[in-house]
Amino acid sequence: MHLAAHNWMRSESLEATLARLQKLGYHSIELAGEPEQYPIEETRQLLQRYGIKCWGTVTIQTGRRNLIAADHQQRRDTIEYMKAVVDLAAGLGGQIVTVVPGNIGTISSPSKPEDEWKWAVEGLREVSSFAKSRGIRVGLEPLHRCETFFLNRVNQALALADEVGFDTGITFDPFHLSIEEPDLLAAIRACGSRIVDFHVADNNRLPPGDGSFNWKAIIQTLVETGYDGCLTVEVFPPIDRTPVGDFGLKQVEDDANISGLLSDSYYTELLRRSAQVLTPFLETK
């Protein structure tokens, strides 16, 4: 196992992100699934310049991107989008694509659950078949119920992956699954070798060590499953806009209190602490 990080949490150039990851000892990056933002050759050159590998990509399920939408054309467009995200990962030498089937922020649906399941299976079979032909493995990511009504638990994701086939697995995010699963370690064991990707944030979505998770036990359980991929840091702190937190003074860029853009120094510290906590477990596993 080795350290990676997402890049969707802070708006900045890819080069700025890669320079930070190189400085902090990260090995890989999991890119936001926005293919038009990352031309293959230009992005490949940047990755090589900073010695950072592309671990994979993640679908960004906003707007009309929804694999279980009632509208056929919307589902068709989402499938084509997901295939473009697969192409991005494959073109950059990645190994995985994390897929969220539904739309983020949609917590109810007018459709029948049987129809949604059928649409998810149909769409994911096409995406996963395409991914396998490109040497990419798809991981389905369950999210907590406040972000999506579809796919919240490990047993649901495993059942969907089984129906999809094509070596589809699970992207395990302990932040989300600690809300939905009664026993986080048992959930990891239930996934076993099906874990394709592992996202990292503590129970409060701050860096590991800033919350209540037992990271030594989590990493040891991952080792038991045989997982040897990335630990992909995905921390996302709230901006404290109250007097208690000096109205975000230590968190945001100068004169950016309205936009709430995290400052470089604050965000760098989040990733530094993440690496500091996780690296000893990797070295002694």
Give me the secondary-structure topology.
Blueprint (H helix, E strand, L loop, with lengths): L1 E5 L7 H11 L3 E6 L6 H11 L2 E7 L12 H20 L4 E4 L13 H21 L3 E4 L13 H11 L4 E4 L1 H7 L3 H8 L3 E6 L14 H11 L4 E4 L30 H21 L1
Parallel strand pairs: 1-2, 1-8, 2-3, 3-4, 4-5, 5-6, 6-7, 7-8
Helix pairs in contact: 1-2, 3-4, 4-5, 7-8, 8-9
What does this structure look like?
This protein is 42% helix and 14% strand. By secondary structure, the chain is an alpha/beta fold. The protein has a single domain, classed as TIM Barrel, CATH 3.20.20. Helix 4 links the parallel strand 4 (96-99) and strand 5. Helix 1 (14-24) packs parallel to helix 2, helix 3 (72-91) runs parallel beside helix 4 and helix 7 packs parallel to helix 8. It is globular.
Task: Name some characteristics of this structure.
285 residues; alpha/beta; TIM Barrel; eight-stranded parallel beta barrel; 9 helices; globular; Xylose isomerase-like protein; Xyl_isomerase-like_sf
Quick overview of this protein structure:
It comes from Aspergillus pseudoustus. With 285 residues, the protein is an alpha/beta fold. The chain has helices at residues 14-24, 40-50, 72-91, 113-133, 154-164, 174-180, 184-191, 215-225, 264-284, and strands spanning 2-6, 28-33, 53-59, 96-99, 137-140, 169-172, 195-200, 230-233.
